[in-house]
Design brief:
two-stranded antiparallel sheet; globular; 65 residues; alpha+beta
Length: 65
Amino acid sequence: MYLATKNSTLLRVCLNNGINIEYKCQSGVCRKCIVVEHTSQGDIFTLACQKLILPTEKNQFSTIK
């Protein structure tokens, strides 16, 4: 499990926890930080710099695999 602060982006959580992820601009313009999010509706491509990590009902954060 990795540590995240409230409303952190996935990119920031990865970088703060030593997970190497490709990025350049941190605003979504360059699209280098695109990742695949596995959801119950299927796989979704998203930008890590724009994906917010939100607490669950139990105030725990989603697990990053």
